[in-house]
Specification:
Number of strands: 34
Structural class: mainly beta
Strand content: over 45%
Largest sheet: 9 strands, antiparallel
CATH topology of the largest domain: Immunoglobulin-like
CATH class of the largest domain: Mainly Beta
CATH architecture of the largest domain: Sandwich
Number of domains: 3
Helix content: under 10%
Shape: flat
Number of helices: 0
Length: about 450
């Protein structure tokens, strides 16, 4: 962050009595969107002044209220956009009787972009925006150049200067910048007493209050004497209202602002004097120690997806759905699991002079396994699994030169794996590398439906 602070005497716009309005400095003094992530603002007030409050037309304050001392520090984050615009920041101190003592500053937010230019090939191209030049960049053989520029708010066109030898061409190109005239509003004091308070509107071109449309909720709003260059309104809460809000927009424009304040309630009646204390009751007998927590009951559900690899065409996708139940010993580190799934392998061959042969192998393994948790630290867990079961499969062969066939059989399967899981609430996400042994044999088939498997899963624990 740049260390230089600039006193914005030319931009300070007093909204009430100028002698008592806060003095404002901010750094960096030139804010580039996407580069300057934080702006520090110093507000100077008399040492005996009350809390200084802040509001912005765009962006956010880390803390909108600062109290204590002659110098109050605010941290403001610019909006996460890239097109140029101006931000209005207003700082004020509530007063017991009249309008707030307030100051507004205009912070230009510079946008960065890259302008594509088409000109003579090989020409040296510069772009001038608001008196600042960018480039030169040499156009390629197609006469195209891309020039990074910085655009301050309010600029709608750029001047392009293309030079080739002794020939110089100048033209103007438009800048596609959304129209924006910021508005910002505040209600004072905070909270607002039932007797009423003040509404102040600041921003671009707000000197003429007739261009503004106000929509109050929970209060009546009436124009008051002008506060400096900005409109000032008297706000009277309606009977029974708990809060006041006012929406402000420009006529025939999309610019808008909103101000809100809670209604302060009258002080409660004084409390009656306290009654004399009663004698303390006799101490209850000591309670027996609490029973140890009962083991968690319930069945967890998990879903697996991934693929297996066993060389050649012995590979393919797999999905499975399973249930697990933690056993009530060893701190529930051991769980029994039942899992059913589907996996598939395919092979397609082109035989010269005959045609194409396609083979598909689909299996639905049903497995029983045990999972032992080795490490359970906060959200992370590490476990090992081992199990086996039945492997029913169906083999189908088709070709273009003779009749195909189908066959099926019941095989067996076994596996061991390591499982690493991350837990959030009742859900866990885990990865599981697995070694599998799942041979498949028929008179016409010799294959493997298991080898090395890579699996991603999610588990829900009630």
């Amino acid at each position: 962050m740049r260390p230089v602070f600039l006193l914005l005497t030319a931009l300070l716009l007093p909204l009430a009595a100028a002698a008592a309005a806060p003095e404002v400095r901010f750094s960096p003094t030139r804010v580039v969107l996407g580069e300057d992530r934080l702006v520090e603002v110093e507000v100077r007030v008399p040492p005996e002044a009350g809390p200084v409050q802040a509001v912005a037309s765009t962006g956010t304050f880390a803390e909108p209220v600062a109290a204590g001392g002659p110098v109050r520090t605010f941290r403001w984050t610019p909006p996460d956009i890239r097109y140029p615009l101006a931000a209005y920041l207003v700082f004020w101190v509530d007063t017991p009787q009249g309008p707030p003592e307030a100051t507004a500053i205009r912070v230009p937010l510079v946008g960065r972009t890259t302008l594509p230019i088409t000109t003579d090939r090989g020409a040296s191209v510069e772009i001038e925006i608001a008196g600042q030049r960018f480039g030169p960049v040499q156009a390629d053989r197609r006469g195209r150049a891309r020039i990074p520029v910085e655009v301050p708010p309010g600029e709608r066109e750029a001047r392009v200067l293309a030079t080739r030898g002794t020939l110089q061409k100048t033209r103007t190109v438009p800048l596609e910048v959304p129209p924006h005239r910021p508005l910002v509003a505040l209600l004072s004091p905070q909270p607002m007493p039932p007797e009423g308070g003040w509404l102040v509107v600041a921003g671009e071109d707000t000197g003429d209050a007739s261009t503004l449309v106000l929509k109050p909720l929970g209060a009546r709003v009436e124009p008051a004497a002008p506060a400096g260059a900005y409109p000032l309104y008297r706000v009277t809460p309606l009977p029974g209202a708990q809060s006041v809000s006012v929406d402000i927009r420009r006529r025939k424009a999309k610019d808008q602002a909103r101000a809100e304040a809670a209604i302060g309630q009258p002080p409660p009646p004084p409390e009656p004097p306290p009654l004399p204390p009663e004698p303390p009751p006799p101490e209850p007998p000591p309670e027996p120690p609490p029973a140890p927590p009962s083991p968690r009951k319930g069945v967890a559900l998990h879903l697996l997806a991934g693929g297996f690899f066993a060389g050649g065409a012995n590979q393919g996708p797999l999905v499975a759905l399973g249930l697990s139940y933690p056993l009530p010993f060893w701190d529930q580190r051991l769980s029994l699991e039942l899992e059913a799934g589907v996996r598939r392998a395919r092979l397609s061959l082109d035989i010269q002079d005959l045609g194409q042969v396609r083979s598909q192998l689909v299996a639905a393994p049903v497995l029983v396994s045990a999972r032992l948790t080795l490490l359970d630290a906060a959200a992370w867990a590490l476990a090992v699994r081992a199990g086996g079961g039945l492997l029913p499969f169906q083999h189908e062969v088709s070709n273009t030169f003779q009749e195909g066939f189908e066959e099926g059989k019941l095989g067996s399967m076994a596996f061991v794996s390591v499982q690493a899981a991350y837990r959030f609430g009742r859900f866990s996400v885990f990865v599981e590398p697995r070694w599998e042994h799942a041979p498949v044999h028929t008179p016409r088939l010799n294959a493997k439906l298991g080898g090395i498997a890579a699996i991603l899963g999610v588990r829900y624990e009630p």
